Amino acid sequence: MTTPQITIPDALLPHDGRFGSGPSKVRPTSVEALAARATDYLGTSHRQLPVRMMVAEMRNGIAELLRAPDGYEIICGNGGSTGFWDCAVFGLIDQRSHHLSFGEFGSKFAKAVAAAPHLAEPSVAESEPGTHPPLEPVAYVDTICFPHNETSTGVMVDPVRVGTADQLMLVDATSGAGGLMFEPEATDVYYFAPQKALASDGGLWIAMVSPAAVERIEQIAASGRYIPPSLDLKLALDNSRQDQTYNTPALSTIFLTAQTVGWFNENGGLSWAAGRSSASAEILYGWAEQSPVASAFVADPQQRSTVVATIDFDPSIDADTLVEVLRSNGILDTSGYRKLGRNQLRIGMFPAIDPDDVKALTECIDYCVERMQ
Ligand SMILES: *Cc1c(COP(=O)(O)O)cnc(C)c1O
């Protein structure tokens, strides 16, 4: 099928056409700030003060943003969230874990755990895409794992502590951290990578860890279990406490993360940032409700993500064609998650994305849809 030639009038277009669910829009202001540090930060040693001060700024800023409770620490390392799953397989899960699996990311973590020869077969609760299984107590597990926001389907779960004190709550907040409100005390490990709601680049993992999680990391490290050094959370903890990483990190990723976090904190912190996403979500789901051809994929409004929207289209509109038409007009990365195989658009509504641009996007979609029928 050839993509129809549709030119959206300039007046309707958003100021910034990036609506990807990750990597997502990086603010041009942050990139300009990075350029201003072209000669005294980029290309300098990560063991020297300028970079360590930037790591400190990022760690302190994240602690403030996430409202880290007393004793909670911010640690980081290389490998993104996928790398962190492997770190958790080696250094956080003692014997057996429980997983909520309701999309690509939750299921990938459960698979990584199931493949580990030193761990017992995990307990896995599954549900249909577009829903999530109940978050409820489970016996005979030492770790409970679930995504805050399942980026592949646009379903969110509010983290609540359902386990006993010795069961760690591991929350994959890759697309949630900075864009969703939550109760920090309900989590032991709230981990993420900064290329989604934190409007930075990829490659890094960051985690807010509770005293109980630190204790678990230290216990397992002392137990004699084989742990590859690049996945060793004890090494990550020791290095992070000195504002370093075990091996060389991407300095631009750290800088851009610190920029976004600083911007959030200066404007009112997590409630402000999450409020921007909520405002976008209200616009987008409100529009879908009114639209004759679009509807929210996630049926339960409580589970409907306010950071990543999945919007189904009537069969009269081919979503893949619509995605291409939008792309030819500079509106990028609106395609649904491939493996889900639905006639769907998936739209990032992270805090850095302007709610006014989300409004403009809905008008652009209407403009294209009218000309595609
Ligand atoms: C994107 C994503 C991941 C993977 O992150 P990487 O940094 O690419 O490894 C994991 N979990 C969730 C919920 C995600 O959205």
What does this entry look like structurally?
With 373 residues, this protein is α/β, with parallel strands linked by helices. It folds into 2 domains: 30-266, Aspartate Aminotransferase, domain 2 (3-Layer(aba) Sandwich); 270-372, Aspartate Aminotransferase, domain 1 (Alpha-Beta Complex). It has helices spanning 28-35, 49-65, 80-91, 104-114, 211-222, 233-240, 251-267, 270-290, 319-328, 355-372; strands spanning 73-78, 97-101, 123-126, 143-147, 149-150, 155-156, 168-172, 189-192, 204-209, 294-296, 308-313, 344-348. The strands form 3 sheets. It has a 7-stranded mixed sheet with strand order 1-9-8-7-4-2-3, sandwiched between helices. A hairpin with a 4-residue loop joins strand 5 and strand 6 (155-156). The chain is globular, with a radius of gyration of 21 Å. The two termini are 15 Å apart. The site of pyridoxal-5'-phosphate has 13 residues, from helix 3.
Give the gist of this structure.
By secondary structure, this protein is α/β, with parallel strands linked by helices. It has helices at 28-35, 49-65, 80-91, 104-114, 211-222, 233-240, 251-267, 270-290, 319-328, 355-372; strands spanning 73-78, 97-101, 123-126, 143-147, 149-150, 155-156, 168-172, 189-192, 204-209, 294-296, 308-313, 344-348.
